[in-house]
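cache lookup: miss for this entity combination. No prior model stored, computing from scratch. Input as submitted by user K.M.:
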Amino acid sequence: MGYEKNGNNEDKIEDNVPVVETEAGKCFFERFQIVIPGSLLGKGRFKTGDGCYRENDAFYASVVGLADFREGFIMVVPLEGTYIPKEEDIVIGTVMDTRITSWRVDIRAPYDAILTASNFLEKPFSPVYDDVRDILNVGDVIVSKILSFDRTRDPILIAKGQGLGRLQSGRIIEILPTKVPRVIGKRGSMINLLKRETGCRIVVGQNGRIWISGRSFEDEYLVVQALKKIEREAHTSGLTDRVKDLIRNEKEKKRKESE
Amino acid sequence: MKKKRSVRRVNSVTSSRKEPLESLLRKDGLRLDGRGLDDLRPIRMEVGVLDNADGSAYIEHGRNKIVAAVYGPRELHPKHLALPDKALVRCEYRMATFSVEERKSPAPGRREVELSKVIRESLEPAIFVYKYPRATIDIFIQILQADGGTRCAGVTAAALALADAGVPMRDLVVGCAVGKIEGKVAVDLSDVEDKLGDGDMPIALMPTKKVITLLQCDGNLTPEEFKQALEKGIVACEKIYEMQRDVLIERYSKVRDEVTEEQREEEE
C-alpha cells in the first residue's frame, strides 16, 4: 500500500527526532512530547497501549496527546475525546426518559445508559403499584456506577450503595473527560488538595461531570476556577503546586477585601 | 472536453476587466495572482474555534474561508441507520449563500450532496470507525467564502477538526488540487484558473501512510501530464500537512510554554 515509487513506503525518520533505545525497541519521542495522529512513536516489540496502533513493527499515535513509554507499553495520553464507558467507572448522569421499570440516563457517552428500578431501590419495585416517575423524574441527576458495558450492549448503571444515588443540592460543572485523571491526581493528590483547601465536598465522575457542594458560593467558585485551570493546563508538569498557589492567592485576596 | 471560455461566470479578479481574459499566465510566466506554477496560495489554519462542537477548525486557503466542525462519536439518531460493527460517518458540505459572487440558493444542491459524499469517503479511511459501533461521527463543513479548491481545503479543515475532537485516526488527511492552465501543470488552482483552465484534479491523501484517499479529475490530461500533476499534488499536500501538524501541536505547546515562562519568572 502507498503511492511512493519502487514500493519505498518506509517511514522516514528525520534527523532531529530523539531516539531512545529501550529493551523492546526504539522510541522516537521524548517522554510527554505532544504527538498527533499518524506520528511515528517507535519500532520494535512493544505492547500497544491506549491512543496508538501498530502496523507490522511500527507504532503510531492515533490521537492528539502526550506520548509515553511505560513497562513495555507505548501509549498516548489523550488530550481530547469523548467519554467511553468502562465497567466500574463512577459517572454522574442526567435522567433523560422514563420507562415502566427503568430510566434512560445521559452519561455524556455515545451510548445511553439504562438504570433499572432494581438497581436503584433497596426495596422491591412493582410496576403495578409504583410509578418510576415518583422516584426519579426527567432532569434528575444521579451518581452511579457502570455495572456492565461492551460494544454490543448499552451500559447498565447501578445507583445504590455508598456514595451513589440522587443528588439534591450543590452544583455540577463539566470538563473534558480526558482531563479527569489530572483532576484526581496521583493517588488522589489533586482532589484531596481541592477538598482540603476549600472545604467543599466534591464528586468526580469519570465522564467529566463534577459535583461540588460547599458552605458558600465563594468556596464553590474557587473549586470551579481551579478545575478550569487544571483542564487548561492538564498537559503541563508541576500542576498541583500551581493549583495550590491559585487557591491560596484567591483566599488571601478575599481576606484582604473583607478587612 | 474543453470548457467554454466565458467571462461572465468569472469572479472579481477578472470581472473587473473590460476585455475578455487572454491568458491565465502573465507575460513574465507567472500566474495572474503572481504565483509560480508550483506555488501554493497563502494558508492559515486555526484549531478549536467553536465552543459548542467537540472539535473544530478554521482554514483560510487563499481566499477560501472554511469552518469545519465535528461532533462525536455520539449517539446516532435515527437509530435504524446504526451499523452494528462500526461508527457511521456523516459529512455535510455546505456553501453559505454569500460564499460566491452571485447568491447561492440555500437549498442543498446536487454539487453539495456529491461533495459531501466524496469528502466523507476521503476521511473515512483515516478514522478507526470500528472502535465506536452503533455510534456516529458527524462532520460539518461550511464554506464561508469560496475561491476554487474548496473540497480540498474542506478535507484539510475537517481532518484538523477530527483530531481536535479526539477521534482516533490512522493519520491526518490533506487535500490539494492540481490542474492544467495554458497547457501547463499548475498546483492549487484558484477559481478563475479552475473555470478557464484546461483541467482540474483534486487530491486528498494520508501523508505519513502515503495513501491517496481522493482523486478526481476533470478536463483533458495526457498520461504524462497526469503523472506530473500527481507528483506535484503529492508534494503540495505534504507542504500543507506540515502546516496542519504545526498548528495542532502549537495549540498545546503554547499553554506549556506560558506555564514554564510563569515558573521561570517566579523563580527569578
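stored under new cache key. Confidence is low (pLDDT under 50) at residues 1-12 of chain B.
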